[in-house]
């Protein structure tokens, strides 16, 4: 029986639909048989490409693009055109592509998000939707969402309030969940909560895609967030919710309010803390000291620094110190100077770290307290100047210097500066990537304390382990798991983190340890099976045709 013209047109339309659907599109890799069935002959070039050829073409095109922001746009377009090719390219070239997909390039991408906008990704919920958020979420086409990364755009990296331009952060974080931990793309949902912006430049920019008003604050803001949380619990009851780049007061308040109500965590507070703690655990293999024998000085007292401090204090208590003793090992500086007990301007998340010392500047405090580690999360480039590093090196044979602010232009110091000013003795880690440094005929490999080492594995373990909550114990277990993944060769070169090439294996190990920890705490829905690692590995997303 001959097919009608209408039936032929429907088949051709089906083929075009495949090419337009990034989840099903294979581009030039559609086989001859598939082209027959879908009516793609003539629409595609006649030669059938292999997946490997497409990957080679993709990485070659990426490398020929000179500007990082244009590389970002290229990869974003590829993700919207051929999802499997995009993720395979990212997985197989993770070290090369991660700085483009996430820090530092994502910072510029967020600043220019409205200008470079091509196709929508993720989900936008604004104050205009208040009272209707639950119904609005029904518009998302996927029902089995397991991971949500949400931001309100107020504190994007070290760049400040970027409003809806901050959507680049949830998009980037979820791409890393897929590439680094094998979470299925269809189970991921990036969300932007638009409550306005204090960025006057954006409000006046005709290209800006968000509400052109100052930020809504106070009870109206918290009511809006609560409506969102309740709607998520109803629409996506199996989802892990990750708070991302909220300003410190809101970040702390929201985590405190919802941490026991649903499966959630704040990556800036808890993810950063776990990654930094892993770096400190690894550093003990270089300086030969126990964590509980060290003193730690923090520059910056925002959510990242105090998050590290709270988790570090818990880790010190696990090594036998009392709560008071552990807090005495931590000293904090903020914009007003040393955090001391005689100050009346301390936020609740900072107050536990107040020192009984008199007010003094950073250099004097280093000379008096003689910390083993100096940890920066200030967003202030160059605050760890030569004088500060030399002061650290004067009293410590192996000073630990963590310059955690990102993007790179916000780092407290560079890797080369830390090594040079300490005569090559610094144990260094950063939030953004730095290249290899040659010192005294030796190679120093600076470790990047990238949250991507922890949050993918944490999420993987929580989701497949059936965890009901994320706790400090689970974050400490993740930190130890990550630290144990660093090889002795890497340690010998001064690197505190494993190669990103190993990230999927590292994420699996973290996932197993996190799930077992959750079970031991009675925070899993079911028993974690003995072959949990094998089961999770079999389910991890790996793109192929």
Keywords:
5-stranded parallel β-sheet, Hemocyanin, N-terminal domain, 3 domains, 7-stranded mixed β-sheet, Rossmann fold, 545 residues, 14 strands, alpha/beta, 24 helices
Structure notes:
This protein has 545 residues and is an alpha/beta fold. The protein has three domains: 76 residues, Hemocyanin, N-terminal domain; 163 residues, 3-Layer(aba) Sandwich (Rossmann fold), CATH 3.40.50; 271 residues, NAD(P)-binding Rossmann-like Domain (Rossmann fold, 3-Layer(aba) Sandwich), CATH 3.40.50. It is built from 24 helices and 14 strands. The protein is globular, with a radius of gyration of 24 Å.
Topology:
Layout (H helix, E strand, L loop, with lengths): L4 H16 L11 H7 L12 H13 L4 H14 L1 H10 L1 H8 L3 H7 L1 H4 L6 E4 L6 H5 L9 E5 L16 H14 L6 E7 L5 H4 L14 H18 L4 E4 L4 H11 L5 E3 H21 L8 E4 L3 H16 L4 H6 L1 E5 L2 E2 L23 H8 L3 E4 L9 H10 L4 E4 L11 H7 L5 E4 L6 E3 L2 E3 L2 E2 L6 H10 L7 H13 L3 H5 L10 H18 L11 H8 L6
Parallel strand pairs: 1-3, 2-3, 2-4, 4-5, 6-7, 6-9, 9-10, 10-11, 11-14
Antiparallel strand pairs: 7-8, 12-13
Helix pairs in contact: 4-5, 4-7, 5-10, 10-20, 14-15, 14-21, 17-18, 20-23, 21-23, 23-24
Uncertain regions: pLDDT < 50 for 5+ in a row? none
Q: Which descriptor suits the 3D outline?
A: globular
Give the integer mean of the pLDDT values. Answer: 95
Strand percentage lies at 5-15%
Number of strands: 14
Could you say what the CATH architecture of the largest domain is?
3-Layer(aba) Sandwich
Measured on Cα atoms, how large is the radius of gyration? Answer: 24 Å
- Secondary-structure-derived class: alpha/beta
- The CATH superfamily of the largest domain is NAD(P)-binding Rossmann-like Domain
Distance, first to last CA: 32 Å
Spatial order of strands in the largest sheet = 8-7-6-9-10-11-14
Which class of the largest domain in CATH terms?
Alpha Beta
């Amino acid at each position: 029986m001959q097919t009608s013209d209408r039936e032929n047109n429907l088949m051709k339309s089906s083929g075009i639909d495949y090419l337009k659907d990034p989840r099903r599109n294979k581009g030039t890799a559609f086989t001859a048989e598939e082209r027959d069935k879908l009516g793609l002959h003539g629409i595609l070039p006649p030669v059938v490409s292999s997946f490997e050829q497409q990957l080679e073409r993709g990485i070659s095109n990426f490398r020929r693009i000179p500007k990082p922001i244009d590389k970002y746009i290229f990869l974003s377009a590829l993700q919207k055109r051929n999802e499997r090719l995009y993720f395979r390219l990212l997985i197989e070239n993770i070290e090369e592509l991660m700085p483009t997909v996430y820090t530092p390039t994502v910072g510029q991408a967020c600043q220019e998000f409205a200008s470079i906008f091509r196709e929508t990704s993720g989900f936008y919920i604004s104050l205009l939707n208040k009272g209707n958020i639950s119904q609005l979420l029904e518009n998302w086409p996927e029902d089995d969402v397991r991971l949500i990364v949400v931001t309100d755009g107020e504190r994007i990296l070290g760049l400040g309030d970027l409003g809806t331009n901050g959507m680049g952060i949830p998009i980037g974080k979820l791409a890393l969940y897929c590439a680094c931990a094998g979470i299925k793309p269809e189970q991921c949902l990036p969300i932007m909560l638009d409550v306005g912006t204090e960025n006057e430049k954006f409000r006046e920019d005709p290209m800006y895609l968000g509400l052109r008003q100052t930020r809504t604050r106070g009870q109206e803001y918290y009511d809006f967030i609560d409506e969102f949380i309740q709607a998520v619990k109803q629409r996506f009851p199996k989802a892990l919710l990750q708070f991302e780049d909220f300003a410190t007061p809101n970040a702390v308040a929201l985590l405190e309010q919802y941490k026991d109500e649903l499966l959630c965590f704040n990556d800036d507070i808890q993810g950063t803390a776990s990654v930094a703690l892993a770096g400190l655990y690894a550093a003990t293999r270089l300086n030969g000291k126990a964590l509980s024998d060290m003193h730690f000085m923090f520059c910056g007292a925002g959510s990242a620094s105090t998050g590290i401090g709270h988790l570090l204090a818990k880790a010190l208590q696990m090594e036998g110190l009392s709560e008071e003793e552990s807090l005495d090992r931590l000293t904090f500086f903020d914009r007003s100077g040393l955090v001391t007990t005689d100050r009346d301007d301390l936020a609740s998340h900072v107050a536990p770290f107040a020192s009984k010392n008199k007010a003094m500047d950073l250099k004097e405090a280093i000379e008096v307290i003689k910390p083993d580690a100096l940890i920066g999360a200030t967003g202030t480039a160059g605050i760890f100047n030569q004088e500060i590093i030399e002061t650290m090196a004067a009293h410590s044979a192996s000073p630990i210097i963590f310059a955690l602010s990102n993007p790179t232009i916000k780092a407290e110091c560079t890797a080369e500066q830390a090594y040079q000013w300490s005569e090559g003795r610094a144990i260094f880690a950063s939030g953004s990537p730095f290249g290899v440094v040659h010192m005294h005929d030796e190679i120093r490999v600076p470790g990047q304390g990238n949250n991507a080492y922890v949050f993918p594995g944490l999420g993987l373990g929580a989701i497949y382990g059936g965890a009901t909550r994320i706790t400090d114990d689970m974050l400490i277990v993740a930190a130890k798991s990550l630290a144990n993944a660093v090889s002795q060769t890497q340690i010998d070169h001064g690197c505190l983190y494993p190669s990103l090439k190993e990230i999927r294996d590292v994420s699996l190990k973290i996932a197993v340890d996190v799930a077992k920890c959750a079970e031991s705490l009675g925070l899993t829905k079911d028993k974690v099976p003995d072959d949990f690692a094998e089961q999770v590995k079999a389910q991890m997303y790996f793109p192929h045709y």
